[in-house]
Design goal:
Layout (H helix, E strand, L loop, with lengths): L2 E5 L6 H12 L3 E5 L4 E4 L6 E4 L2 E2 L5 E4 L6 H13 L3 E2 L3 H8 L1 H10 L7 E2 L7 H7 L5 E5 L8 E4 L2 H13 L4 E5 L7 E8 L2 E9 L14 E4 L4 H14 L3 E9 L2 E8 L5 H7 L3 H12 L12
Parallel strand pairs: 1-2, 1-6, 6-7
Antiparallel strand pairs: 3-4, 4-5, 8-11, 9-10, 9-11, 12-13, 12-15, 13-14, 15-16
Helix pairs in contact: 1-9, 2-3
Length: 302
């Protein structure tokens, strides 16, 4: 029997309820711990995490379900658990890589994973060169800090792309400019990876008139069979990030699959309902096989 901590702020989310259910079905206990209510003694020789006035001890594993808006604090709490020897489902270093859109794309490109043409520049004088480098309109403009399809815009013409980019530059906001994969037709693929294997895949289609396929934005999902190339792209992306469990979002381009994002806390509702698979159970099973004290590769380093 394992004692598992889940760092999450909303116990009522489908994904969180399912993980509790799956853990209890297998005879484990799972405590949902509000990440922002944790506090730590950083300078102590014996790393500790406190929650509601009590020291958290005796945990075998920690499941980080850290919202994008609290990544910085959530990673600090997770690192503290790692230094206490608690096994993390995903390590803080790997989550940090995947949450930084720019860094994650640089790492994926280095490892030869297919990506849409993506440009990044600081100087507003280079707007026209950036547009040309990305292949001209239509273009996708993304805020580096955006999540769940928010902060993603489609510019239909070079003129509108230029005005959007210049507006963001004026507010000192970091953005990526990306080739628009028209042939994907508003559909993308999400592959769920657990322990280096694709365990489920679904095709997501955007709501009518929306080029984003996020289920949070009214998209729909259905079961899909991946091609061998899509499967290996998803597995390689997870490995590059160092994530044990993740969702890899891909588009079908005329040159093969291109990766849009690697999500370290994928929602379970869409994929479980589309595939009728027990993904939460597979995650707990992964912890049963791997959760041993002090098995974090990086031990809270870097």
């Amino acid at each position: 029997m394992m004692k598992i901590a889940m760092l999450a702020r909303n116990p009522d989310l489908y994904s969180h309820k399912r993980l509790v259910e799956a853990a209890e079905e297998r005879g484990h206990s799972l405590d949902i711990i509000n990440t922002l209510r944790c506090y730590m003694n950083i300078a102590s020789r014996r790393p500790t995490v406190y929650y509601n006035g009590e020291e958290l001890t005796g945990y075998d594993a920690v499941i980080p379900r850290i919202g994008a808006s609290i990544t910085f604090y959530g990673m600090a709490v997770l690192r503290q658990f790692e230094m206490m020897g608690v096994y993390p489902l995903n390590e803080s270093v790997a989550i940090g890589r995947s949450r930084d859109k720019l860094r994650s794309m640089q790492l994926l490109a280095r490892d030869g994973v297919g990506l849409p043409t993506t440009t990044f520049a600081h100087d507003p004088k280079q707007t026209e060169e950036v547009l040309a480098l990305a292949g001209g309109a239509p273009l996708v403009i993304k805020l580096l800090e955006g999540t769940q399809g928010l902060g993603v815009m489609l510019a239909d013409s070079d003129r509108s792309a230029k005005s959007v980019i210049e507006a963001f530059r004026a507010t000192n906001t970091n953005i990526l400019v990306q080739q628009f994969i028209k042939e994907a037709g508003g559909e993308d693929i999400r592959a769920i990876i657990i322990g280096g294997k694709v365990v489920a895949a679904m095709k997501r289609k955007g709501a009518p008139e929306d080029f984003r396929s996020n289920l949070h934005r009214g998209g729909s999902a259905q079961l899909i069979k991946l091609t061998p190339q899509e499967r290996s792209t998803a597995v390689r992306s997870a490995k590059t990030m160092g994530l044990n469990v993740c969702g890899v979002d891909m588009l079908r381009s005329k040159d093969g699959p291109v990766v849009m994002e690697v999500n370290s806390s994928p929602g379970l509702e869409g994929v479980e309902k589309a595939t009728e698979l027990d993904i939460a159970g597979m995650i707990i099973e992964y912890l049963e096989k791997n959760a041993k004290p002090n098995r974090t590769k990086t031990r809270g380093k870097g």
